[in-house]
Amino acid sequence: MRSLGSAAVLCLALVALGVGGAAQANSTVGESKTFLELLEGETLISGNGQLLFSNFGFTEFDHLPEHLSLYTVSALEDGIRIQGPLTAGRRGAQLSMMYAVSGIGEALIEDAHLEVFATGTGGVAVVDEWLFVHQGENLLPVAQMQAQVDEVPGRATDEAWFEPVRELWVKKDIVLEGGPETQVSVEYVDQRFSLVPEPAGWGLLGFGLLGLWRQGGRRRG
Q1: pLDDT of 54-93, one tens digit each?
Q2: Phi-psi sector, 41: left (phi>0), alpha (psi -120 to 50), beta
Q3: Per-residue confidence at 220, pLDDT binned at 50, 70, 90?
Q4: N-terminal to C-terminal alpha carbon distance within the chain
Q5: CA dist 58 → 40, 94, 95, 142, 166 (Å)
Q6: Are 98 and 129 in contact (CB under 8 A)?
Q7: Cβ distance 5 to 212 under 8 Å?
Q8: Three-class SS string for the chain?
Q9: Measured distance CA(118)–CA(186) in Å, rounded
Q10: Do the domain assignments include residue 139?
Q11: What is the reported pLDDT for 180?
């Protein structure tokens, strides 16, 4: 029985280590590209090597600096982080962009996570997002998300689930609403994606659980 208990503890420890390691990796910012580089055709690959971000377009800079070299997109373990001079006062501001995210190799995307962190002395920060897939010549919407910070400093999140796909197109609007005596700044916008678990991973998990069950059966016998 002691052997079974030790195995179970080891299994739980490995799971905890995996979760902790993933959380730590998710917070790590990797390679960065400026909006200018991305608009000229540069791409980014997520830290896990399974997601390709490409085909960037920037459609609107309302009351924000329009120099594309001032803004960056950085690779996260499972997504990207958007940063730049995203600050608005009385008039408010908006940034609109679009890009594609593709699974590399056999990777399939099955859900998306959105997070925005804003600071300032007041105002509202909103990130609206639409996800599309190609259907022939058209883009078919599959999900919509919104993360809104009503009180700064603050953080807001949203997520969406959909049928696994190889590629998504993302349209994102970052909207800042200030006031006469307020100022709101978006420190970053994070975009993460989850992938369909690989069959090999599920097989290893099942094999490990089966081993624990058999060992317990022998002890009881």
Answers
A1: 999 999 999 999 999 999 999 999 999 999 999 998 889 9
A2: left
A3: low
A4: 11
A5: 11, 11, 8, 21, 23
A6: no
A7: no
A8: CHHHHHHHHHHHHHHHHHHHHHHHHHCCCCCEEEHHHHHCCCCEECCCCCEEEEEEEEEEEECCCCCHHHCEEEEECCEEEEECCCEECCCCEEEEEEEEEEECCCCCEEEEEEEEEEEECCCEEEEEEEEEEEECCEEEEEEEEEEEECCCCEEEEEEEEEEEECEEEEEEEEEEECECCECEEEEEEEEEEEECCCHHHHHHHHHHHHHHHHHHHHHHC
A9: 4
A10: yes
A11: 82
Residue 205, phi then psi, degrees to nearest 5 = -65, -45
Q: Tokens standing for 83?
A: 């940063």
Look at residue 17 and tell me if it is in a domain: no
Q: How many residues does the chain have?
A: 221
Amino acid identity, residue 181?
E
* Residue bearing tokens 């696994």: 164
- Residue range(s) defining the domain that contains residue 149: 31-196
Tell me, rounded to whole angstroms, the distance of Cα 106 from its chain centroid.
19
What pLDDT score was predicted for residue 86? 97
In a domain, 90, yes or no: yes
Q: For residue 149, what are the β-bridge partners?
A: 125
Q: Which residue has the tokens 């997601």?
A: 51
Total domain count, the chain: 1
Amino acid at 7: A
**What is the CATH classification number for the domain harbouring 120?**
2.60.120
13 within some domain: no
